[in-house]
Queue: 4 jobs
Job 1
Amino acid sequence: MAHHLMTLAAIVAAVVLLLPCATGYPWAFCGENNNFKANSSYQSHLSLVAATLPKNASTSPDLFATAVVGTIPRQLWAMGLCRGDVDGTACFNCLTQAFRDLPNHCSYNKDATMYYDPCMLHYSNNQLIPDDDSGDFYTINSTAAVNSDPVGFNRLVAALVNATADYAAHKSTRRFATGETTAGSVSEEFPKLYSLAQCTPDMKAARCRECLAALISQSLDAFQNLTLGRVLWINCTYRYEAAPFFNGPAMVQIAVPSSSVPVPAPAPTLAPAIQPSYGTPAAVAGVAGGRKYNLPGVVVAVVLTTVTALNLVVCLCFWRRRRRRRGPTAQAKQPYPTYSVEAEDTEMVDSMMIDVATLRAATGDFDESNKLGEGGFGAVYKGVLPDGDEIAVKRLWQCSTQGLDELKNELALVAKLKHKNLVRLVGICLEQQERLLVYEFLPNRSLDLILFDAEKREQLSWEQRYRIINGIARGLQYLHEDSQLRVVHRDLKASNVLLDANMNPKISDFGLARIFGRDQTQAVTDRVVGTHGYMAPEYMMRGNYSTKSDAFSFGVMVMEIITGRKNGCCNSGMSDDLLTTVWEHWDAGTAMETVDPFMAAAGIFSEVDVLRCIHVGLLCVQPDPAARPVMSSVLVMLGCDTITLQAPSKPMLFLPRNTAGNTTLSTVSLQG
């Protein structure tokens, strides 16, 4: 048996060394049979994203950005992620270089990925659904083996990478962590180790840990007794080495044993096998996207051990894992499925239940001193949970006619929306005739409380205002284009945009939101509800709403953020509303006269950038919904000053509907 294994190992070792190796750093991987033509719209989309995504990622606190340009079937989806320990300049330079290099490596490929040490770039014509089809490639880097106490060394590696993965998933909002082994019996036979783990920041903590657990559980066998290992996937990655490779101090430390006693491994939450949504690394499990390979995991482990024992170095060989193609049987995974409440949705809602006694205690029994605001659906109170977490509790009026099943349906929808620019739903309570929605509390409350206050808005510099505009656009892009559900908010306004401690915006209040099917472009309602000054003319006058009506509301907010004035669309004979004022100055070439004078006092700003934002805002409030840009295009236009924008048309003046049965309603904000 031993002779048979050695013979098999020798044969496969030869095969491994003959495998096509990567041409060298950086590592580029190209899709197959999916090309675009020169000078096509897809190439134009790629150029647009190349001009904006590096800046968006490098200025993001998470060093992460996505972009969607165009419409299916010529849509381009791109993602850039930088390592959490690099600075913004290094991130920008890396992603800029990636956009230069990748099209050369993958000429006219619609699906391509480039891995550098500091960053990763991926683009495709098939938008990746979050947490689905996340992996692309699996790599093995091997060096000399540890000859002393290999069992203890392998346990130490497992402890280190799992502790680093735990920290990245559960203790870092950026989903990034570094680790190292601390002083002990460190020698050439038992070297000090350094580690790194990272997920895309838009992943939930549990999903990030599941992704990393899947990688670790299926790759550590291939790294047995090796002092260096790395796995690169699109949504998550981990790495360890015997030499320092990251910047700054380690976030996690694991003690090295003082003797050769084996290190007890932790009890990580390792998946028994790669989850279906991630596929299977070919080098380990032998299957990739339905295609079978001839390198079972146990054989690869034997090969690597044999090769390293002979002091041979395997040359960064890559086993490609084909991403599963969505065929007719995979329609449920389409980006914008028709939503229906399933049993798992009800279970999800049930798992978020908080008892009413806890919320009464948290809010001082809904004391008036804790009230943050109220409106058409109920009041909002600040609360503090027993663990010290601050919350905002929306208490729906008891006279509401909304049934329990309908409310659970709405909650299931909100619970599915996860984005850094959306307010997070913490829990719910449906006891004692109470209907309570519990959200994260944001200390700077709502945008309107700062923007329309003559004293408070002095703190809003242009940099902060631009970040708020950009963040709102990103949240809307997620709702309209990137989430599993296609959502129209219908009540976007300054009081429904909340600000965290760093003045980052989060869209709130989905009480009026509606779900659209994948192919649905608009809907009509007989009951127009919303807020004057933000409603698009086609919605106010005819009840038509769509993502373009949200774009109109966004355009109004852009004008408000830049001018510091609230849009009172019909208050003064319909001649001096904010949109008309800005338009008239724009048409006369004096748009800078509309800028909030407090903005100049708060810091230096670029007139070019301000004028571009005004231009984009005017494009969003055009009377024709078809002429308004989609949010992915808005982000491209905001982030690139080399793109020529079309001339906007004059905004429409209109009266609100006042017909019986068609009334408007000012709705309550979470914290305003």
Note: The chain has a mean pLDDT of 74.
Job 2
Amino acid sequence: MAAPRQDAEPEAQELEQELELQAVIGFNGHIHAGLTCHPDREHLIYPLGCTVIIENLNNSQSFLHGHTNNVSCVAVSPSGHYIASGQVTFMGFKADIILWDYEKKELLARLSLHKGKVEKLAFSPNDLYLVSLGGQDDGNVVVWSIAKRDAICGSPASAQSAGNATVLAFSRCRDEMFVSAGNGTIRVWELDLLNRKIRSTECQTGQLKRVITCIMMADDDSYFYVGTTSGDILKLNTKSKLMSDYGPMKDKFSQGVTALLLLKTGDLVVGTGGGIIALFKGSNYKSIKKIQVQGGVTSLTLRGQGHQFFAGTEESQIYRINFAEFKEKCIATCHNEAINDIIFPLGTSDLFATCSKSDIRVWHTPENRELLRITIPNMTCHAIEFMRDGKSIISAWNDGKIRAFTPETGRLMYVIDNAHSLGVTAIAATSDCKRIISGGGEGQVRVWEIGQNTRKLGGVLKEHISAVSCIKIKKNNLECITASLDGTCIIWDLVRLIRNQMILAHTLFQCVCYHPEEFQIITSGTDRNIGWWEVFDGSVIRELEGSVKGSINGMDITSDGTHFVTGGDDHLVKVWDYDTGEVTHVGVGHSGSIRRLKICPGNKYIVSVSADGAILRWKYPHSH
């Protein structure tokens, strides 16, 4: 087992400082009711990985760090003073709830009783209590006192004969009543503060057996609605605990009702698993307006009492919808699959591109805004590169093709078919834009001659016996280096198309960089070591442990060669001093494995991308 970090890096431990996180592009749309509009109407609150993000609607962000694992649910108190967030953890371990002060963005308390996962959270109308629901392996409801930051009482959430409870809603008027529901269970709970007990009554739905996905309470508490996986909505009387009606009878939503909003007018907004958002007039279950969004709807949240609401979807899209026109506007988007590469064009830090399963996206750095999306359905893009002249983005795909697109419009310029037999896994271009070097899953390195209207194979370099993971070309275009999962890095002569040098290690190499002076290279991979090597003879200069656990998947070096950055399966971004081999700064914020990272031209930012689709922008710490 690896030694604890304190022992592993004693010198670095004192020197390490925290990297400043500037911006996050990412939204976990898979968390039901994960997107909430704060009562101040100016901020959206949502989880991403271990972080809770507070985003001002004019684009600035703040971050709540404190969870040790992915956040599974978030709630905002009716007054807006508090945020509560729950997390997942490992089976049998305690899963924390954190209570935050919204104004100060500070952690107020850790509440730890649930095991495995906190499923849902809800605040009472006057901010007196917080109720929490444990996940599948826990199954308990706990009521907490906000003032005392302590548990008052708890109870199993559902009868043993029923399925799990998965959703909660607090009364709108009384601090002593809330509702829970789930698979075949709908319960109304009363809190008896004197005796520190909660008592529940099971609601009766007659012959209907339903799996409940969401609850919406009426303003006066007289009734509440629940949405179901069957695609209908049940209305229940809070006093009698009986179902008063349900619908729609005929046009049920095929992929279930997944989110509900009840308006002051009595109208109902319904979000569905099929990406439909419908407006129901009153409670006659007939939709008068409908819109289609991208991905199943997982969150609906009102902006104040007001004229608009927000919707979050499984495909990581956030929409703003105005009631009057009932038209959607996508206000935030991000990848919802692992991101495989990130690149900046030559000389500018205001744009960058990322690639993921089936798409390439171009982003405007200052505003975290998507400018362009290029989609090739059912394919995966492994690597991308901006051509030096800025006229094209070249890309490596798992169907064995190299595709080139225009960066402004995303128009397909050309395709090199059958570039590699087991998919194209790495790509780079010479600075004169006359050659593309590609690496494949079968281990071949191929040199392509690129003319005005022609693309022809100039040479095949067959030495690697496993997938090529990274290619870097020397500034004079006469030499390149390729890293492979076969444990070798090869330096190639691009004029004579022969091997100059080979570097061997017991690792699957994931990344390689030339030092700007080009007489040394640095490498890393699955053995967690960072290696410094001489280009001239392939000899090792130094090896250091780069991570306490997991592979290092990405690295980049500054233009002056004084520092480099690494990221990998330990979710940490590390900034290293090239000469001393010491870590100067560590960035904590990713919840998925970091796949690649880049220092932007001009050394203003570091941008890192991860397996959960998140893009994080950090302030580069050593800029002069």
Note: The CA atoms of residues 405 and 411 lie 5 Å apart.
Job 3
Amino acid sequence: MDLTPQHYSFIGICLDIVGALMILSGVFVTKNKAVEIGVPRYASKDPEENLKLPSVANLLSQSKTAVWGTVFLIVGFIFQAIASWPF
């Protein structure tokens, strides 16, 4: 089977999806992990109170942004893959 440009395009798009997921895995944190990472050791023992700290809020904001960015990337790549599918 000879590979056509459409094959390469489709493979590239699939690799882009994998890359986007890898980026997400590098920046996504759960609330518990954000508290663990971002809270000074002298913070409150109440996790809900610690979620209000600026460093924790920033980590959660970055994580949420990464999730939405990845969702948009994947949806866009899926549309591109559909467009190049009939090869």
Note: Residues 3 and 87 are 10 Å apart (CA to CA).
Job 4
Amino acid sequence: MARENSAVLKENNENLVDRRIGNYHPNVWEDDFLQSLSSPYEASSYREKVESLIEEIKEKALNPLFGDGEKWPSPYDLLERFFLVDSVQRLGIHRYSEKEIEAILDYTYKHWNDESGISWGSKNSIADLNTTALGFRVLRLNGYHVSQEVFKIFCDGNGQFVLRPPSEEGDNQLRSVLSLYRAAEISFPGETIMEQAKSFASRYLEQTLAESHNIREKSQLLTEVEYFKNTSWRSRNPRWEAWNSIQIFRRDIDSWMSIEGVYRMSNEICKNILEAAILDFNILQAQHQNELKIISKWWTESSVKEFNFFRHRHVEYYLGYACGLYEFEFSLTRVGYAKLGVMVTLIDDIFDTYGTIDELVHFKTALINWDMSMVGHLPQYMQICWQFLHETYMELADEVEKIHGPHAHKWMQDYWMNLIMAEFQDEEWIANDYHPTLDEYLKNAVDSSVVPVVTLFPILLIDMVLPNDILKRVSKFEYDVAMACRLIDDCKDFQEQKSQVRNDSWLDCYIRDNPGTTKEQALEYGETHIELHMQEVTRDYLCYEKYIPTCCKRVHFDCMYRWVAFIWREVDGFSTSLKGIKDDIMKILINPITIYP
């Protein structure tokens, strides 16, 4: 979103216009390459194989743990259940066994005690940190109410976490602390015990990683520690999590399914779980590749692909929804979002970088009302862009009308108008050399983040009945997601300190409103508020807004918030996608996972 290099570009072979361009690298995904993709996993035999494996997993692993523990008595019955559910959810195959998982978790929840902690087995009263932390995480992620108070038993009189010596049963301190760290990642606002847990566990894991730095062949557990410590939960979107979990689990199947030194599942079942996850990943990937071909063909035939003043990132946009809303039935939503992403990026880079204020006054009016009479007032490049935007918008609107009827157009238009007005407000501030206060900036930040538009439009492309008051229901969730995404983006831009940036960021406004604030203090403020908004978003997603369809919440949480956190996790991986994000796309969308390492 930054203005960068200056350039004088000739228009209409007549007028020289002094413009600023972003100097972005071109599209890195050639159409010939994408159209050449071919996957054997489209064959129906692979789906049949997955179904067969799932049935065997249910019969030999899930169903024995189904309901009453007396059907399969074990001293580790609670830990086994939490561990298995966590594993299949990380691997992305839980959707095949939703009823079985619900029954398993209902059984564990009957034995949950927020005051005394949880043991590894329902017949044991000794609180176990690993089981408690893993159970807390699994239950909270699946919508059960669990309190941070459950961890008080593992703290001393001063509220500091204390590790007990390893027990005779083979309690693994590193595994316990890793489970505690993962649990603390999904804390809610005001949970001070979870903050303390994360701080304690983080120090322990960092020390462990430092001590193991020179180890060439790391154990599966150490590999997991590296993964979870180096990639925050907010950026571990579902497909990325599945890909990495497959790589980790396949390193040592025996270690993966070894619970407290007791092997509860045969090697055959472990292999079946892993094989089902790999096949499922590859089958979904084959579907995603077909959608990439559709998007690439659309892009190649578009009228704006020759304009190099905006970022050509249709594949990168598609990655966001393919990682978050990945199932077959959401194909229209994924393809629509990729097209929408091109639209909002074109608009953003025209308003934010390339257009002059005089041009943008007319462009704004033409876009808000789709006013054809205004097109003649636009320069040639804007006329081409307007035509492209209008055609794509109407294409999406037609699809929305087929699903929800003509009343949905009003929802779309209101959000669209807010986006254009917010983009123009940013440019007007720049043109007038006006620096907004933090309050002024934040009032405009939600709409200028583009989050409302790029979440609502894809939601409307989901073939399901939506409540008439859906906009009201998603408003708070949408606000928290938008603010978190805006701050993540602003922090990265602020850190990079691009020399030609003219846009004010959240942190620039904060520094001006608080004279004497250093860059380091501003960044600390930003990171603190990212964490606070993440906790708000997490709570909204898991606990509140029960009347919002789950797939709609996934659009906000997995497809938008986690995609932004993922693609900006190190640098601005959207503006610069030549290396890191390109490699991620190759893993998730291009290269199938081999069945055997």
Note: Residues 267-300 form the longest helix (34 residues).
